[in-house]
Amino acid sequence: MSIVEVEIKFSFNEEIKQSIIERCTSFGGEKTFVDKYWDHPTLYSLSLSNIWLRQRDNRWELKIPPTQLQDINNNNNNNNNNNDYNSNLSTYQEIEDPKEILNVLVNLKYLSSSSSSSSSTFTSSSTSTPDEILKKRLEDSGMKEYATIKTIRTSYLLTIELDTFTVVFDQTEGSLNDYQVGELELLVEVPLTATDSEKQSAHKDANNKVLLLAKLLGVNQGDTNMKKQRAKIEDFTQAGLAAIASAQEKVCVVKSVNGQVSNVVWVTFKPFAQNQISWKEEYGLYASSTQIQNGATISRLSTLKAAAKGHQYPFNSSGFFDQADSVSVTSYGLVNNYGEPLTFGLTQSALINGVQVDSELNATTVLGNQTAEYTPIVTLSVFVQSQQNNGSVISSITSQSLTLTYTSDTTKAVFYDDNSNSFVEGNLPN
């Protein structure tokens, strides 16, 4: 039997969490583990193909869409990913044997078929363990650890007829910033002798069951079911990269809120020749005492990591966000019940070249007992500028910026023009 994991991820707050727990059949336990993720540090060829290689408490695991394994069996190694990576629903096959992991990576051409190191092949005379051999082959190819994440996982079991689903609530901390995410999971056993048609039928059946449960629990409603947006910021020439590095500049992205370009830099990064930013239209709220002045970096006092659109959240006198009150709003609302003026705004996570960050989108001063409402718009301003960080307050964009407006499209390509020292939408002309 091979095990296929079908999962759907969702954001949650305490109200959503408690509602789900009440429907669960039993408590599954709590555990803590550390994941070390591996990939090429500049290409991120695995993670950008929805393949995840990690050491969980030093045990190797590879999570890969079954469609890519079918490509191996069909000798079709074009790395097409037919898994619906743009949705929250994912189907993976988990591989834990280091020898099998190496074989898969070689067949999909993420690793070369041979290595010059005599200690990096699986032979009966080898003195190295399979774990050590796999690590050596990865290092020889230029791959390395790019993130270490500690996760505290609380799990519950929910049995419906003959199926037992696992519901997990993860709280992470580490090099990808603190983050919380929920997950509905169903493990499916598929006979090794099953045909491709039988495997696809089993996957589809499991997918439908998970989606149905997600709908029942209400975790696939609203923003949590929206597709990922992407910006491919690529085609930097070596001269362009050198010029940006010499000027100590970074790529800066500002998002629009309430119909205008925001006063906070959402994300910044030092560019490679090719870069990718992806995100979902999911938002949180923050409170801060940082004064809104040019150059200041927002320092949070409290964060509501998952806010639901159409709700208003009181920031209470104890200094944290309460559950949503009965007030209905159009977008994302809050009321400052702390008793003093504070800085508030939206937060949003993004995946930048395979590394997840969580940053502020905007900043407004809200007086005591006053309300605020924020409407984010999927319009980005992209530019290069020095002395900016994630969450930096910016009074104006001093360099030439490119405006990207997303409507029905989910991906936009951008290249850097060395002549104008600015970004241009589209692909670099030949």
Automatic annotation (TrEMBL):
One record GO biological process: thiamine diphosphate metabolic process
SUPFAM superfamilies associated with the record: CYTH-like phosphatases
Limits of the CYTH domain: 5-200
InterPro entries, per the entry: CYTH-like_dom_sf, CYTH_domain, THTPA
An example molecular function term from Gene Ontology annotations: thiamine triphosphate phosphatase activity
Gene3D superfamilies with a match to the protein in the record: Hypothetical Protein Pfu-838710-001
Pfam families: CYTH (PF01928)
Protein name in the entry: CYTH domain-containing protein
Organism this protein belongs to: Cavenderia fasciculata (Slime mold)
